Amino acid sequence: MPDNVIIVGAGQAGAQVAISLRSGGYTGKVTIIGDESQIPYERPPLSKHFLAGEMEADRLFMRPADYYAQNNIDIRLNTTVARIDRAASAIELTDGSRMPYSWLVLSTGGRVRKLNAPGGDLDGIYYLRTIDDVGAYRDRLKPGLRLVIVGGGYIGLEVAAVARKKGCQVTVLEMLPMVLNRVVAPEMSKYYADVHAAAGVTIRVNTTVTAFAGDGHVREVKCGNETVPADMVIVGIGIIPNTELATAAGLKVENGIVVDELTRTNDPHILSMGDCANHPSALYGNRLRLESVANALGQGRAAASVILGNPVPFTEVPMFWSNQYDLKLQMNGVSMPGDQVVIRGDMAGHKFSACYLRDGILVACHAVNQPRDFMASKPLIASRWRPDPAKLTDAAVTLKDMAA
Ligand code: FAD
Fold first, then answer.
1. How many domains, in total, are found in the chain?
2. Which of 11, 116, 132, 316 is 20–30 Å from 222 (CA)?
3. Rounded to whole angstroms, how far apart are CA atoms 147 and 157?
4. Same domain, yes or no: 87 and 151
5. Distance of CA 340 from the midpoint of ligand 1 (Å)
6. How many CB atoms lie within 10 A of CB 359?
7. In what order do the strands lie in the sheet with 169-173?
8. Is 254 strand, coil or helix?
9. Residue 349 DSSP SS3
10. Which CATH number is 366's domain given?
């Protein structure tokens, strides 16, 4: 059998594997199989410029459509892989056809977590993961529309910011006591809640959706005894990693497909990366399943390096960003509840950063309109820098100077 790579999942991670294989000189056959109708695209703008109608789909694509043919990458869209036959080193599509592989890449990403409440199938209730999802409703964000957003995570808050700019009446319902609960310090959570309140968004925390009601179209969101009127609902309550193929094939799965630092699963011919994969972090001494572009692309490159026979692990400090209103939040590292938080800069002036210390070591930095701290913090987190917390508050001294 000639050397060939089959990539399951045409998202950013899978496409990056193919791109890096070709740029690295791989001459075998490369096939990308994706169940969406679009060539690989960037999801971050979906809840930002694309939702706002300031960007069209053609600007989301990672590479132009002719890139794949020009680089001899066979890309099959609207196609779903149903099964992996490890014994025969082959995959099976839903139409029953089979394709052999010498390397199999599982970049199956995640799917939206659905809200299983009565009335959840009414018209006007939407999710946000794909171009098609957003295309179905972005033109309906009009002044006066009563939009209820379920979930106060990054996606929910980004949607809130866009919808407010469009003049919608926006209510965010969050089950937990704080927005961005899992991912930022309480100080940061309060800051974002205040920013949204000042922009006219109603945020209700400790509020669980119990049902939707309407006459075919959603009109109300019920939260226990309370009712919130709604013309449209967008649900953003996280994703479920697509690990079923891997589980059925007997691969190790534990909050994602378990891989090593080179994206290798427990099958030497199967690699996995991106939102669906759980990898070891030497920096934090634990395992992580990250949902971020930098991770998807970095691990995609690492997987290609394995196939090319020159393995280079992806060990960079995790990175994420979120744009809301004119606030550019850039994040290095992964914080955890209980980390010591030191704020540098001017929160009221919307130019500050939150530094997270664990056992005295800088583990994460969340910078709001403060690119200098964002840039400087990455190598400092990587080197496990131990700052003096008292000095850290002095934003007049750059992190770089402080560390020197
Ligand atoms: P995915 O993009 O999920 O791609 C996997 C693909 O595989 C999907 O198309 C899926 O349908 C397909 N698939 C699954 N199973 C099969 C099968 N059996 N057969 C065929 N195809 C299959 N990250 C940031 O860093 N910054 C941001 O600001 C940011 N904003 C975001 C905003 C939104 C609205 C969303 C949805 C995500 C955002 N992210 C952001 C996260 C980032 O987009 C993801 O981490 C990244 O896209 C993950 O890429 P992936 O290739 O691992 O998975």
1. 3
2. 132
3. 12
4. no
5. 31
6. 9
7. 125-126, 232-235, 146-150, 169-173, 202-204
8. coil
9. coil
10. 3.30.390.30
> Quick one: which H or E segment has residue 163?
helix 154-165
- pLDDT tens-digit map of 85-110: 999 999 999 999 999 999 999 999 99
Output the six-digit token pair for 288.
């992580």
E strand or H helix at 74, and its extent? Answer: strand 73-76
Domain presence at residue 397: yes
Question: Are residues 153 and 211 both part of a single domain?
Answer: yes
- Domain membership of residue 318 (yes or no) is no
312, part of any domain:
no
The CATH number for 281's domain is: 3.50.50.60
Q: Which amino acid is at 269?
A: H
Q: Are residues 229 and 243 in the same domain?
A: no
Contact in structure between 160 and 196 (CB atoms under 8 Å): yes
- Nearest-CA residue for ligand 1 atom 24 is 292
What confidence tens digit (pLDDT) does each residue in 24-77 have? 999 999 999 999 999 999 999 999 999 999 999 999 999 999 999 999 999 999
Average model confidence (pLDDT) across the chain = 97
Testing ligand 1's pocket by substitution, the residue of 47, 293, 320 carrying the most ligand atoms inside 8 A of its CB is 293
Q: Where among 211, 235, 259 does a domain terminate?
A: 235
pLDDT at 1: 37
User: What separation in Å is there between the alpha carbon of 220 and the centre of ligand 1?
Assistant: 30
- Both 95 and 171 in one domain: the answer is no
173 alpha carbon – ligand 1 mean position (Å):
24
Residue 317 lies in a domain: no
Q: Which two tokens stand for residue 315?
A: 């060990």
Does 215 lie in the same domain as 124?
yes
| Contact status, residue 182 vs residue 205, Cβ threshold 8 Å | no
| Range(s) of the domain holding residue 39 | 4-111+239-307
Cβ < 6 A, ligand 1 pocket: 8-14, 33-36, 43-44, 46-47, 80-81, 107-110, 128-129, 155, 242, 245, 274-275, 291-294, 296, 320-322
- Residue nearest atom 29 of ligand 1, based on CA coordinates: 44
Total residues found in the chain within this entry: 404
Beta-carbon count within 10 A of 81 CB: 22
Exposure on the CB side of residue 312, measured as CA atoms within 13 A:
10
